[in-house]
Amino acid sequence: MDRTTILHAVDSVYESELEFLAELVRHPSTRGQEQSAQDFVATDLSDRGFDVDRWEIDVNDISNLPGFSPVIGNYEDAVNVVGSLRSRTRSGRSLILNSHIDVVPTGPLDMWNRPPFDPYIDGDWMYGRGAGDMKAGLASNLFAIEALKHLGLRPAADVFFQSVVEEECTGNGALACLHRGYRADAAFIPEPFAEKLVSSQVGVIWFQVHLRGLPTHVAYAGSGANAIEAAIPLFEALHRLERQLNAMECRHHDYVDHSHALNLNIGKIEGGDWASSVPAWCVVDARIGVFPGHSLEDVRRMIEETVFDAARNHPSLARSPPEIFYNGFAAEGYSFKDDKSAAAHAALATLDRAHSHVAGKPLEHEAITATTDARFFGLYADMPALVYGPRADAVHGFNERVDLASVRRVTQTTALFIADWCGLEKV
User: Fold this and answer.
1) Which of its termini does the chain have fewer beta carbons within 10 Å around, N or C?
2) Comparing C-alpha atoms, which of 422, 414, 307 is closest to residue 9?
3) Domain range for residue 377?
């Protein structure tokens, strides 16, 4: 099949792709609220001829698997959706098209220009929570297949279209797909990294520090112990650990030019019960990055040593030491660049050809300072995982938006990639 014909086929379905994306953004699929979006995806996949598998994740099924992260809150109605397109000939290489349906919270609504789940187009951008991260990628996966269908063609190998939950806090949705038996010769994940291949990604650890103080009336504050203020020297100590982890001698080879690839974030703090009472408790939620190849256990040990050493030098924490709990991400770093397998080499060459044809220039590579679900396929399923998606702006921020011209190019690249990687057969 001529490549130009495939590109024109993407153009033919592009308006439908934008309508699909806008409808998907209208579903406020924050953690625990993904069901309506997943219902929409499942129904759409079924209407397009996919065999649909929709199931609720059972934590007991995956809690002992490599890559599992401690869960946050209730897992009732944590729903995954996979649509399968089974090839008749199976003459090509199989593929997982993975994307996540969950989005991060919006923050204060009055800080958005318009309601976050009311998508709109301004110029060449579509605005809305999740438009970039990563519902545009989900749409590009689907409409790459749809463009081929428009030509009377389909992949000549099995393709599994995955819409998963939990990517933003654990990754357990992708892990549940592996447990359910979904395997392929490669995985393709269109996360919004500006049409660059993610060569490496850091790991992530989420942890909580629980502090106890001594409550008293504020009139006698000197006789109490303020649990919130006691957290401040711990922040300073954790930032020293952050600098230590980023030292040149600790860096993965793909991050030698990153002076600060691993970021500590004090993301949430709660404490106290009354403005005129010295606070008796404080809970701090934090996140820290981990280089590929570094042991999560080693970094956890360093976190604990850092917190407890700082506590021993604090008058109230020395008497009542902090407690550390791990919830959410326990994600190892993953480097596609380190995968020297023939499958990884072939997948990269296939994507490079597709991207170069669409963009008119070679594929750029980037080591990112975040994590994606690629680690599950690359580390635990012996499957090269390509992360390549559109350009987006204000991801996780206010007025999140995705570049629609970039979405079109990524859809074209994905269609070419599928045609080359999987081969084609008649519908």
Assistant:
1) C
2) 414
3) 3-201+334-426
